């Protein structure tokens, strides 16, 4: 194994995943079961939810209370906000985002899904594939989650029927054929009783696949990062004000994709100037090379005009550099999109003024139909064209999440009003 491969492998020890489902599909219970059966909750937490469960007249512990943190969630029995939980096993560390299932909280789910390696979509075995199930699959496809698990839950309420499970799998697969989902796993389970969650249980012997925890621990995510295209957005220009380092000029930031080595040729965008890497500086010392997602300071052989917002790339793997592009936009603000207004677009470390020049369509997230639209309202998703005042170096989102994503900011109040994913460029 090369050194670059070993760095990439170390990164795979952290898995970020989301859960999504319709009301009462049991996603919060599933997360509670994962935490409980993997011995990842404290005694005082278990005691608190046990007391609450008994006060409500429940015979067993309601594990969903571990994730439904808001008072409104507890009172209504629904998930509203994105609840993050952390746990670890000897094989891997995990960050869980329990995301809302309601259409009115689409923006919350998109937020939680934006950094996920894997999505778990829960389906009630009694109800089968619902409109919300299709919507969640579409959103997972939209934000480019590479791994999808369809968890057919509450199998205990259908007698652990193999026929029911296979019918649901076939229905979902038929719908998923039209989406950009290539790695889908199907697991029957009972989150309430623990079958096929952490332990296999005794009721689903006909299922020969992995239990959910086995899959989470072993799903390969080392290729989820783009290692082909070197992208280094400059966050800060380091000029130490010390006598011994008064000539030092370093460019600080995080390698969003690809890798770089000392002596490699680099190009600065959008200026197009070129040089070579002189040093790769870290807190622990100098490196011969670095790989995404490391944060480093780069020095180059030539004195060039480089500032925050510029991007270093390898000339052999050029991104698009344009003032106009098309994107899928998820509108987050209560104030609707006004095509007559100017906004700010923040993409990597660059902030530019922008105008939405065209709205192609709005997506009905329940039917996936494209509808004509003159604006986008909160939780709407639509395809738009944007014009920016200064060139942006970017890639299609499906190829590079870091350089293909951006946020839209209302310059009047500095609020983030939308999240975008670049889908086509106009050269």
Automatic annotation (TrEMBL):
Pathways per UniProt: Sulfur metabolism; hydrogen sulfide biosynthesis; sulfite from sulfate: step 1/3
Biological role stated in the UniProt entry: With CysD forms the ATP sulfurylase (ATPS) that catalyzes the adenylation of sulfate producing adenosine 5'-phosphosulfate (APS) and diphosphate, the first enzymatic step in sulfur assimilation pathway. APS synthesis involves the formation of a high-energy phosphoric-sulfuric acid anhydride bond driven by GTP hydrolysis by CysN coupled to ATP hydrolysis by CysD.
GO function terms (MF aspect): ATP binding; GTP binding; GTPase activity; sulfate adenylyltransferase (ATP) activity
The Tr-type G domain sits at: 12-294
Recorded catalytic activity of this chain's protein:
sulfate + ATP + H(+) = adenosine 5'-phosphosulfate + diphosphate
Looking up SUPFAM superfamilies in the UniProt record yields: EF-Tu/eEF-1alpha/eIF2-gamma C-terminal domain, P-loop containing nucleoside triphosphate hydrolases, Translation proteins
Q: Where does GTP bind?
A: 21-28, 98-102, 153-156
Question: This chain belongs to which protein, by name?
Answer: Sulfate adenylyltransferase subunit 1
Q: Does the keyword Amino-acid biosynthesis apply?
A: no
NCBIfam families tied to this protein: CysN (TIGR02034), PRK05124.1 (NF003478), small_GTP (TIGR00231)
Which Pfam families is this protein grouped with?
GTP-eEF1A_C, GTP_EFTU
Top-level class of the enzyme under EC nomenclature = transferase
The organism encoding this protein is Nitrosovibrio tenuis
The GO biological-process annotations, alphabetized, read as:
hydrogen sulfide biosynthetic process; sulfate assimilation
Q: Which family does it belong to?
A: Belongs to the TRAFAC class translation factor GTPase superfamily. Classic translation factor GTPase family. CysN/NodQ subfamily.
- EC nos: 2.7.7.4
């Amino acid at each position: 194994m090369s050194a670059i491969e070993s760095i990439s492998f170390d990164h795979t020890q952290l898995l970020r995943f989301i859960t999504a489902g319709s009301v009462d599909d049991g996603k919060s219970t599933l997360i509670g079961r994962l935490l409980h059966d993997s011995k990842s909750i404290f005694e005082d937490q278990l005691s608190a939810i046990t007391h609450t469960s008994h006060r409500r007249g429940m015979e067993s512990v309601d594990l969903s209370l571990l994730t439904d943190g808001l008072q409104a969630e507890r009172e209504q029995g629904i998930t509203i906000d994105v609840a993050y939980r952390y746990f670890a096993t000897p094989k891997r560390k995990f960050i869980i985002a329990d995301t809302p299932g309601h259409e009115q909280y689409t923006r919350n789910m998109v937020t939680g899904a934006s950094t996920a390696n894997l999505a778990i979509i829960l389906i009630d075995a009694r109800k089968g594939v619902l409109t919300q199930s299709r919507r969640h699959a579409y959103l997972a496809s939209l934000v480019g989650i590479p791994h999808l698990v369809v968890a057919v839950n509450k199998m205990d309420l259908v007698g652990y029927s193999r026929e029911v499970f296979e019918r649901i799998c076939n229905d979902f697969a038929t719908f998923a054929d039209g989406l950009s989902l290539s790695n889908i796993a199907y697991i029957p389970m009972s989150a309430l009783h623990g079958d096929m969650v952490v332990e296999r249980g005794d009721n689903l012997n006909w299922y020969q696949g992995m239990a959910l925890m086995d899959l989470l621990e072993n799903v390969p995510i080392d290729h989820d990062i783009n290692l082909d295209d070197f992208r280094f957005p400059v966050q800060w220009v380091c000029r130490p004000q010390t006598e011994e380092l008064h000539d030092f000029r370093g460019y600080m930031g995080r390698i969003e994709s690809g890798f770089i080595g000392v002596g490699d040729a680099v190009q600065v965008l959008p200026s197009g100037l070129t040089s070579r890497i002189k040093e790769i500086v870290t807190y622990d010392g100098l490196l011969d090379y670095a790989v995404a997602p490391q944060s480093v300071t780069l020095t180059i052989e030539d004195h060039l005009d480089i500032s925050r917002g510029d991007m270093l790339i390898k000339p052999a793997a050029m991104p698009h550099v344009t003032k106009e592009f098309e994107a899928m936009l998820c509108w987050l603000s209560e104030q609707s999109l006004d095509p007559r207004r100017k906004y700010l677009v923040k993409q990597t470390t660059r902030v530019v003024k922008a105008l939405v020049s065209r709205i192609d369509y709005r997506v009905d997230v329940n039917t996936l139909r494209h509808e004509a639209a003159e604006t986008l309202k909160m939780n709407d998703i639509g395809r738009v064209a944007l014009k920016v005042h200064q060139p942006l170096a970017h890639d299609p989102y499906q190829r590079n999440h870091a350089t293909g994503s951006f946020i839209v900011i209302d310059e009047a109040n500095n609020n983030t009003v939308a999240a975008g994913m670049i889908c086509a460029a106009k050269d």
